[in-house]
Structures are given as structure tokens and as C-alpha cells.
Design goal:
The protein is mainly α and 478 residues long. The protein is built from 19 helices and no strands. Helix 8 runs antiparallel to helix 9.
Length: 478
């Protein structure tokens, strides 16, 4: 049972009906039972469910212990205990095969382990810091960690922002529920009409990267950047939408990242819950920017190395993280040069032309890192990046080459139109426009015409099919 299956939405409808039928004080129990049931179904076996329940109960006990005795050693031991299962599952085979030349192990991989591991670590750290008090009810703590709309891919919640919403029963609110429906529909649009379409070309290039070089890699890099964003944003949109059906508001995870004017700004907009987690629990404890420029840069590098390690095993993820740290360091060191260059060209820092130059440049920098991120290894990724500058084959834009690589011209048209819609919506939202509010204010018949048109368009032009699982969403693999 996954976010793209009919079974999932039948389950959601049943859970929503039961949630609003029961008394307010009992409604959190519906979320708990639903979350445990969803996780069991998503794993397909009881072993994965037992692993997460064991982790949750260990975190529960550690939280109670830390509240009684705020000891740094206890915190360190608890964090290590939480992180070890994640490390073995995500990095164990890399260490065994690549570094130790041993046989791989068939690990039990709990769904969402990378996300709920950070979730429980932040919970324990916040208890140690005195920001929150430990949850005394073990059932309620299990609900906090396993809340099914966000367990697969986040956003990574903080206890003080989510717990009370889960435990307090919500009354039915039409506006909140309708907003949830919008978000689910938008998530399907992003996933099926952009991410899955772009993936066909991207996969084609990456599977034959030695043949498709130069401009092919550039196109694949651009499309993968769009694919990754649409894919991840789709899952988050669906997660937030399903949570809205129960009156719960999850945190934002994206704020139009490809409109960022610097790589630093990009990380304020991309995977916001992870960025905030890294800042609060890695960067600031290391000293942040309080101990001079050199120490700040070292802290930045260490933080992004942790980000790379979290995303996956292998050198390419560490180099990817390092690239983002280097981008920010260079941006900081050349800030005055950038300002002088803008003045010499007669451009103000806030001028529209300046903003778009910075946006395009930032996108290209991020795209180069994504090329490495998507590759099967560091060596292959570097070869692809090198071919972009070595091979000059711009003729592919003037013949039919691009129409013979997984996408026909009609599919390119559909993809182009959908990307333009995403771009236009992002620009308007950046300016403060709320499309959900605009639609909600329309008469009921107008709204239903829009709903049906959107559903018909997704079913007609979207790329979908059987066999989806958690891994169908890219970040489900991290």
C-alpha cells in the first residue's frame, strides 16, 4: 500500500470517516491504529514493523531517562543507539563490499528509516536542551513517530510542532479538508505528469552514458533537476494533503527552490525540514558562524558531509555534499566582487535582470551537483560532467535525436506545458498568491469542473501504472 495506490485512498477514506465519527478524545487512537496498519502494509512483513517499534520504544525510554537526568553521556549513547540501525541498513553493504571486500548482507530495510531516525534524534536532543518534556504515554509516542502521511518521506517533524496536533481531536473543517484535496491532486500532477515523464529521458541517458554525451547530458541534467523536485514535492504535497483530511498541518518542505538566487538561498527553500535539522543539530552545535570565518567554513563543510552521508552510501554523495559547501564558501568570498560587477554593469542587487541572472546561475550550479547525485558512481558522474564541456554536439537540438530517447514529440509537448504550469504557479505563489484560496472562493460547480478537468488530464496524459511502491518516489530510497 503506497501513496499512489487505490488501496491507500480507500484506507484513507475509511480512516477519515472513522476519525470524525468517534468522540474528539478518541480520535488520536484512529491515527495510531491507522499508522501502525499502514506501516505493516507498506513493509509487507512484520519484521520491519518490529524494527521500527523497537526503535521507537528505545527512544521512548531514552526520552524518559533524559528528562530525569540531563546527562550528555546518556544523550550520546541514545543518539548512537538510534543511528546504528540506520547506518547498518544504509551503509553496511557499502562498507562490507567496497571497503572490506566481503559479501553483502540482506538487511531488513524499514520504510522511512532515514526520516524517522532524524525525527527521534531531534526529540531526544530537544528533551536534553529543555525545549520539550518527554511524552509519558508510549502509544502517543508511537503515533508521533509513525504518523502515516509523513513516515515514508517526511517532512521531518519536530515534536513541539506536531505532537499536540495529533493528540487533540480535530473537528471537521471544510476549508482544511478541501485544501488537503487540492494538495493531493497537485501531488499527482507533479508525479505523474512531470516527474514520471521526465524520468523516461533521464533513465535513457544514464543507462547509456558512454554513448549519450555532451548536450545529451545537459538536457538530462536539466530534466533530472526538474524530475527530482517534482517527484519529492509530489510526495510531500500528498503527505500534507492527507494530513489535512484529519485537520493536521505538516510543515513546509519546499519554497520554490529553483527560484533561489544563491546556493545558500536554495538550501533555505529545498528540503526545508532536513535543512533546519542539519542547522539546529549539526551546524549550530559545531559553533555555527560564531567563531570566525575559517571555523564557519569548516562547520559548513562538516554539515554538508553529514547531509551527503544521510542521502546515501558512496563517495558521490559525499562529493555532492562537498560541492554545495564549496558553492556557499565561494559565494561568501566573492560577495563584494559580485556587487561591484553588478554596479559596473549598471544593475542593482534587487533589479529584475540581476535576480534572474542569479537564479539561472544558481540553477546551473545545483544541476551540476544533481548530475553527480544521480550517477551510479563518482567515476561515472564525473565522466558525464566532463563530457558536457568536452563534446560539442548542439546539433541534437535541431534534428530528431531527442525524440528517439524514451519520449516522442507529443510527450515532450505535454512535459513542456506541465513544466510551464509549474513555473507559472511557482512565480505567482512567490508573489503571495494562494491558488487554493482562489479556487475555494469559486462557486461549487466551477470548482468541480476544475477538479474533473484536472483528474481527466492526469489520467489521460500522466505516466502511471501498476507496481508502485515506496521506491517509486525517489526520496523513498534515502
Amino acid at each position: 500500500m503506497t501513496y499512489l495506490s487505490i488501496t491507500f485512498y480507500l484506507f484513507v477514506v475509511a480512516a477519515v470517516l472513522l476519525y470524525y465519527i468517534l468522540p474528539l478524545k478518541c480520535r488520536w487512537a484512529v491515527l495510531l491504529l491507522g499508522s501502525v496498519f499502514f506501516y505493516w502494509q507498506a513493509m509487507g512483513s512484520r519484521e520491519g514493523l518490529l524494527v521500527i517499534l523497537a526503535t521507537v520504544m528505545a527512544a521512548y525510554g531514552a526520552g524518559l531517562l533524559l528528562e530525569r537526568q540531563k546527562n550528555r553521556g546518556i544523550l550520546a549513547g541514545a543518539v548512537l543507539l538510534m543511528a546504528l540501525p540506520w547506518f547498518f541498513v544504509k551503509n553496511g553493504n557499502y562498507v562490507l563490499q567496497i571497503l572490506l571486500h566481503k559479501s553483502a548482507v540482506n538487511w531488513i530495510v524499514p520504510v522511512g528509516i532515514s526520516f524517522y531516525t532524524l525525527q527521534v534524534i531531534s526529540y531526544l536532543a530537544d528533551i536534553y536542551r529543555g525545549r520539550i518534556t518527554a511524552q509519558k504515554n508510549p502509544a502517543k509516542f508511537i503515533l508521533f513517530v509513525t504518523f502515516f502521511p509523513q513516515i515514508v518521506q517526511g517532512p521531518i517533524p519536530r515534536y513541539d510542532r506536531l505532537a499536540d496536533q495529533l493528540y487533540a481531536g480535530h473537528r471537521f473543517d471544510e476549508r482544511t479538508v478541501v485544501r488537503g484535496f487540492y494538495r493531493i491532486l497537485w501531488g499527482f500532477f507533479l508525479k505523474l505528469m512531470i516527474a514520471n515523464v521526465a524520468a523516461q529521458f533521464v533513465d535513457y541517458v544514464y543507462e547509456s552514458y558512454q554513448v549519450y554525451v555532451g548536450a545529451y547530458v545537459l538536457v538530462a541534467g536539466i530534466l533530472y533537476s526538474i524530475q527530482l523536485y517534482a517527484d519529492f514535492a509530489a510526495c510531500i504535497s500528498i503527505s500534507k494533503g492527507v494530513a489535512n483530511l484529519f485537520g493536521v498541518e505538516l510543515g513546509d518542505n519546499f519554497c520554490h527552490p529553483y527560484l533561489a538566487v544563491s546556493v545558500k538561498d536554495f538550501w533555505h527553500r529545498w528540503h526545508i525540514s532536513l535543512s533546519e535539522w542539519l542547522k539546529d543539530y549539526i551546524y549550530i552545535p559545531l559553533g555555527g558562524s560564531r567563531k570566525g570565518r575559517v571555523r564557519t567554513y569548516i562547520n559548513l563543510v562538516l554539515t554538508f558531509l553529514v547531509s551527503g552521508l544521510w542521502h546515501g552510501a558512496g563517495l558521490r554523495f559525499l562529493v555532492w555534499g562537498m560541492m554545495h559547501a564549496v558553492y556557499q564558501i565561494i559565494g561568501d568570498l566573492t560577495r563584494n566582487i559580485q556587487r561591484r560587477a553588478a554596479r559596473l554593469l549598471g544593475l542593482g542587487e534587487s533589479a529584475e535582470v540581476t535576480l534572474w541572472i542569479r537564479r539561472v546561475w544558481t540553477f546551473l550550479c545545483v544541476m551540476m551537483a544533481w548530475i553527480l547525485f544521480r550517477a551510479e558512481s563518482l567515476k561515472k558522474g564525473l565522466q558525464m560532467m566532463y563530457s558536457m564541456f568536452r563534446v560539442r554536439n548542439l546539433w541534437i537540438f535541431t534534428n530528431d535525436s531527442l525524440f528517439q530517447m524514451g519520449l516522442e514529440w507529443k510527450e515532450w509537448v505535454v512535459l513542456g506545458v506541465c513544466v510551464l504550469i509549474l513555473f507559472a504557479v511557482s512565480l505567482k505563489q512567490e508573489q503571495g498568491v494562494s491558488f487554493s484560496e482562489l479556487i475555494f472562493r469559486q462557486p461549487v460547480y466551477i470548482r468541480w469542473m476544475l477538479y474533473l478537468a484536472a483528474i481527466f488530464g492526469i489520467m489521460t496524459f500522466g505516466v502511471y501504472g501498476q507496481g508502485y511502491d515506496a521506491q517509486a518516489f525517489i526520496y523513498g530510497g534515502f
